[in-house]
Amino acid sequence: MKDNDYSKLLGQLAQFIKSEVIVEIGVSAGDTTLKLCEYNKNAHIWGYDIWDLNGHLDQFTHNHTKKSVESSLKQNGVNNFTLYQVDTIGKRKEFER
Residues 73, 76, 81, 82: what is their CA dihedral angle, to the nearest 10 degrees? Predict the structure, then answer.
């Protein structure tokens, strides 16, 4: 996982306001999720991503899967997260209820 200033900043901002619940839309590789978890050990992070082909013409792919991100987060010693794979286009009718 990459260590970047953006992820650290978000983690520290959430820590500063004493967040108990954090929602991340667009987890991808989980870099920011890791920092959110590390800086906010008393919070629970809910992460959502499609982890599949996406874009109007399915032109964007992911190099990560929900399973690989969960595994990587656990290997980094965090467990205060729940990840969901969502498809808001293919299951639009269910999602918009």
Answer: 30
